[in-house]
Each structure stands twice: as structure tokens, then as C-alpha cells.
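Quick start: read one record
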Amino acid sequence: MPNILVKIPANTFDGDARATLARRITEAAAQAEQIPDDPRKRATTWVMVEEVPAASWWCGGADVTRQMVPCLVVAHVPAGVLDAAARTRFVQQMHEAFAQAFPAADARRVVTSVMVHDLPDGTWGVNGALWTLPDFARAAGYAHLQHLAA
């Protein structure tokens, strides 16, 4: 049940590419978190894509958007959902989602920065209530954590 905030330079992913990006990010998160292929469970994965003016992107003090497309991901997940292997897979698949959704006609290189934040148990509010890992396991259906959902 991640909340994934994405920032991309404006006008780099058109509407179809943004939709593809959101779907691929959702799929990558679901695989890493072991969320079943059930639309109700997948709906717990929220992705927000925000375009930032290209002039706002600076890498090493320089505007590099003519050579590359910097993409930023901040993912919030309940602590205890991702182990080291799943976290590695999550980061790799996030980068692949951008590379696969990026328009083929654009010759620039896609570069990603992915930050995964584990939110401590009992610090994430959902619909006015603080949830714990068993609540998330029930809602998202994490295959590896169903023993907590009972």
C-alpha cells in the first residue's frame, strides 16, 4: 500500500506515456510488495505524477535536461513490508518503469532517484484512523504478510 510521489520535467512524458508510467509504477510496487492481482487490492497503491518546469531541475548546479531526463520518486511504504531483496527489486523496477514509458523518439537518457521511506507502525493515518501493519496486510493483501491479517 505505497503512496508514490513522482516528479518529472514538464513536457517529457505525454498523456499516454504518463498513463503508462503510472501503470508500470503500480505494477512494480505490487510485485515488490506482493500485492495480488486484484483491482481492490491494487487500488491501495497510489501514484501521483507531478510535472515540474524543466528550468527547476538542477544536477550538479547545471541544467542537464537537454542531455537527460531526471525523474524523482518518493515512495512511502508501511515499515515491515519490504525486505532488502524486495527493496532492491522495487528500486530497479521503478527505474525500468520510467525507461519503458519514456517516448522512444526522445534520445535523452532517463535517470532516476528513488527514495523509499518506511513509515513506522502506527504512524500512517487512513480515513481518520491510525493503521498498523495487520491493517495494511488486510487491505493490500500482501502475500507474505497474510499471517498478520488473521
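The chain has a mean pLDDT of 95.
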